[in-house]
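EI: anyone free to look at a 120-residue chain?
SC: sure, send it
EI:
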Amino acid sequence: MTKNTLITSLQTIASKEEQTIEKYVAEKALGYCEKHPENFFSDILTYGCASGMVSGLVYYADTHTFFDTYYEEIEALRMEYESSTGCQINLQDVDLKNTLAWFAFEQIAYNLAHKLELGL
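SC: here you go
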């Protein structure tokens, strides 16, 4: 995929009216590195949300709001992940909302990178 095609695809996703995690990820990718959004996907898939690179998912207040906003979508992702891998996400001794917010953002970023054929 060319850089221009990638940018156009991300802009199309970001311009959708429905508020989804995919739209949120596309917006963050476009804002991360305007001329090279593929760097966003490389960085998030390498370092994850724990790196602090996603400005809207750094503080617990932010991750809790994200979780509350996208709860149904996050739960569907969690169930799909656990069903397809046979592994449960460890939610003991952690902040549940923070952990699942980061999981969902990273999972959608991974799915989107695959969908956009970024080869990461």
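EI: The CA atoms of residues 74 and 104 lie 6 Å apart.
SC: 👍
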